[in-house]
Amino acid sequence: MASQDEIDKLLREIAAQDSPQSAPARRKDSGLPSPQRESSSGGRIAYAVAGGVIMGVGGVASGLLLPGLTMISTGAGAAVGAFLIALISGPPRWFSR
């Protein structure tokens, strides 16, 4: 077992690491490029159109396979819904790169 002196030494080391005085100052210049703002809505529209087309094709395919659903209404509903959601939410960061 550890002696009381070893336990006290470990507790002092932990306290020194947790204190704000021992934390190194963070540099503001981290070498990473600053995020750029999107100057136009071209990425948002492209993302919304791509999402609408992909979900529309998926809706048409599910309309073909499922009985009781028409493929045109299912595809149109999926395309419009995906387009509106993508238009409101905007593209993710990886799409804009």
* Biggest pleated-sheet summary: none
Order of helices and strands: HHHH
Helix amount: 55-70%
Q: β content, as a range? A: under 5%
Span of the ends, CA to CA: 56 Å
The overall pLDDT average reads 77
What is the number of strand segments? 0
Mass-distribution shape: elongated
How many helices? The count is 4
Low-confidence stretches: none
Tell me the structural class: mainly alpha
User: In angstroms, what is the radius of gyration?
Assistant: 28 Å
What's the layout of helices and strands?
Blueprint (H helix, E strand, L loop, with lengths): L3 H15 L23 H24 L5 H19 L3 H4 L1
Helix pairs in contact: 2-3
Features of the shown structure:
4 helices; 97 residues; single chain
Structure description:
- The structure is a single chain.
- The chain is an all-alpha fold and 97 residues long.
- The protein has a domain at 59-97.
- Helices cover 64% and strands 0% of the residues.
- The chain has 4 helices and no strands.
- It has helices at residues 4-18, 42-65, 71-89, 93-96.
- Helix 2 (42-65) runs antiparallel to helix 3.
- The radius of gyration is 28 Å and the shape is elongated.
- The mean pLDDT is 77.
